[in-house]
């Protein structure tokens, strides 16, 4: 867990660390390193890890100037603490103006203060760089990516939109011997057709109208590292031919040049398309497919990684939430997240959590804060890898927001069960029949305990239209459905 992460602390050695302070820092989970104050920026620049807690000892305005430089250069990757000798209000005010994260007086050092610094730095860590692999499927996927990353083979990530292909591509780079080199992501679908070749391979001065200087392309920028070609299936056939040569020969010819340039680049590609079908239809080159798919990695959608849903939701709460709140999902919210089909995968989950953060005023997230995207076209229930049914919510954003703002409506009409018991249908058998029976039982119990069909649909996380469809199926199978009480 990120709460147990050891955080490196860079300590300005103009003031030594005494044994008492060292004990507090260590107990808080901080790992101190002492450096001359002038060496701190260059040291941070040379490291790939982070974030760091940096403790600067305030003496005069030069300390404030250094804080301002580090904040502008490293942004949120540093958690900067100004430590003052006694009460120096003017320095503290100036430090806050330039973006210091905390101010600590040396005569008011305490374990709780350093514990707070460490906790907030860990939040900064998860905001900057963290991955969630809890589900067994995800753990196997991570182990595979680690092995592929350690090799030099080209890799093709294949999976639905929003499933995390770029995250896995970055991990492939991080696990490789090229980890100290650049990772250059390119969205092939967003490349303008007239400029795609220039953007990939670069161009010389005067190569075309407006080319006032020579410019490096993505291949040159990725030299010594990894080039990630996202949505590679969107490239045009002429560009595919030039890309094939660049991968095979490890050399490129910039637009307007007659000389080739050697490049040392590892290719990781990704697509949500069936490239084999594209090959059959003539939209994708077969030789390029075999060149980029030396190792093909299938990335499953979120509905096949059910145990990742809640950890990812909590991760996004920390990533996007305000640091002063300890965000918590209610049991009802957790259940609603687990019952949704997630057609938009991880990207949709992140959107839902960001909306919930906007609607939650105190850090507590309940089911009314969860607003799902409106589905495009009809959606049927989908089944996870363990046979669990997932029910997509079809509530449009604006309608859900109005419901949240006005409160859940309580119509005077009530439902009552005129049968008194639930009878399982005999027309289905096996696993599907058992799941249908369980689903129908849940629907009946929900209708019993809600005042309107609209409220029942909201509790179940489905639309009223879907609820009517379910009720019709239940009646076809002879299941007693609670009816509306007469006024």
Written account of the structure:
The chain is α/β, with parallel strands linked by helices. The protein has 4 domains: 2-128, Response regulator (Rossmann fold), CATH 3.40.50.2300; 136-298, 3-Layer(aba) Sandwich (Rossmann fold), CATH 3.40.50.300; 305-379 and 392-406, Helicase, Ruva Protein, domain 3 (Orthogonal Bundle), CATH 1.10.8.60; 415-484, Arc Repressor Mutant, subunit A. It has 19 helices and 18 strands. The strands form 6 sheets. It has a 5-stranded parallel sheet with strand order 2-1-3-4-5, with helices on both faces. Strands 7-8-11-6-12 form a 5-stranded parallel sheet. Strands 9-10 form a two-stranded antiparallel sheet. A hairpin with an 8-residue loop joins β9 (251-252) and β10 (261-262). The longest helix is centred in the last third of the chain and has 19 residues, at 430-448. Residues 377-430 have low confidence and may be disordered.
Q: Strand fraction band? A: 5-15%
Terminus-to-terminus distance: 55 Å
CATH superfamily of the largest domain: P-loop containing nucleotide triphosphate hydrolases
Please compute the radius of gyration using only Cα atoms: 28 Å
Topology, pairings included?
Elements: E1 7-12, H1 19-27, E2 30-35, H2 40-46, E3 52-57, H3 61-74, E4 78-84, H4 89-97, E5 102-105, H5 111-128, H6 136-149, E6 155-158, H7 165-174, E7 183-187, H8 196-201, H9 218-221, E8 226-230, H10 237-249, E9 251-252, E10 261-262, E11 266-271, H11 275-280, H12 286-292, E12 295-298, H13 309-320, E13 328-329, H14 331-339, H15 345-359, E14 364-365, E15 382-383, E16 389-390, H16 397-406, E17 415-416, H17 430-448, H18 453-460, H19 464-476, E18 483-484
Parallel strand pairs: 1-2, 1-3, 3-4, 4-5, 6-11, 6-12, 7-8, 8-11, 13-14
Antiparallel strand pairs: 9-10, 15-16, 17-18
């Amino acid at each position: 867990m990120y709460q147990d992460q050891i955080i490196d602390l860079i300590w300005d050695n103009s003031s030594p660390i005494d044994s008492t302070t060292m004990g507090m820092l260590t107990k808080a989970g901080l790992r101190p390193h002492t450096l001359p104050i002038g060496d701190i920026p260059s040291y941070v620049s040379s490291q790939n890890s982070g974030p760091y807690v940096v403790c600067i000892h305030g003496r005069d305005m030069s300390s404030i100037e250094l804080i301002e430089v580090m904040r502008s250069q490293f942004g949120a990757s540093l958690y900067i603490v100004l430590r003052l000798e006694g009460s120096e209000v003017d320095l503290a005010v100036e430090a806050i103006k330039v973006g210091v994260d905390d101010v600590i007086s040396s005569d008011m050092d305490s374990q709780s203060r350093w514990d707070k610094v460490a906790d907030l730095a860990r939040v900064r860590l998860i905001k900057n760089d963290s991955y969630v692999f809890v589900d067994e499927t995800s753990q196997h996927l991570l182990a595979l990516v680690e092995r592929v990353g350690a090799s030099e083979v080209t890799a093709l990530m294949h999976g639905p939109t929003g499933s995390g292909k770029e995250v896995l591509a970055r991990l492939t780079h991080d696990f490789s011997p090229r980890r100290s080199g650049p990772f250059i992501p390119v969205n092939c679908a967003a490349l303008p057709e007239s400029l795609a070749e220039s953007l990939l391979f670069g161009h010389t001065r005067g190569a075309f109208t407006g080319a006032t200087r020579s410019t490096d392309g993505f291949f040159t920028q990725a030299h010594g590292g990894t080039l990630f070609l996202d949505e590679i299936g969107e490239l045009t056939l002429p560009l595919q031919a030039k890309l094939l040569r660049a991968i095979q020969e490890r050399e490129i010819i910039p637009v307007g040049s007659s000389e080739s340039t050697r490049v040392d680049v590892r290719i990781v590609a990704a697509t949500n398309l069936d490239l084999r079908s594209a090959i059959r239809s003539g939209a994708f080159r077969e030789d390029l497919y075999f060149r980029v798919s030396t190792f093909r990695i299938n990335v499953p959608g979120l509905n096949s990684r059910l145990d990742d849903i809640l950890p990812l939701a909590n991760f996004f709460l920390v990533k996007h939430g305000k640091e002063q709140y300890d965000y918590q999902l209610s049991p009802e919210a957790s259940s609603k997240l687990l019952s949704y089909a997630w057609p938009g995968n991880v990207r949709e989950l992140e959107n839902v959590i960001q909306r919930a953060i906007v609607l939650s005023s105190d850090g507590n997230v309940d089911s009314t804060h969860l607003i799902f995207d409106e589905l495009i076209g009809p959606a049927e229930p989908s089944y996870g890898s363990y046979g669990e049914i997932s029910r997509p919510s079809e509530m449009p954003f604006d309608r859900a927001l109005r419901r949240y703002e006005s409160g859940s409506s309580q119509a005077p009409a009530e439902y009552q069960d005129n049968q008194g018991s639930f009878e399982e249908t005999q027309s289905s058998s096996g696993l599907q029949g058992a799941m249908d029976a369980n689903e129908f039982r849940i629907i009946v119990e929900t209708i019993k305990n809600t005042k309107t069909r609209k409220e029942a649909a909201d509790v179940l996380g489905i639309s009223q239209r879907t609820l009517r469809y379910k009720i019709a199926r239940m009646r076809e199978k002879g299941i007693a459905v609670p009816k509306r009480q007469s006024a």
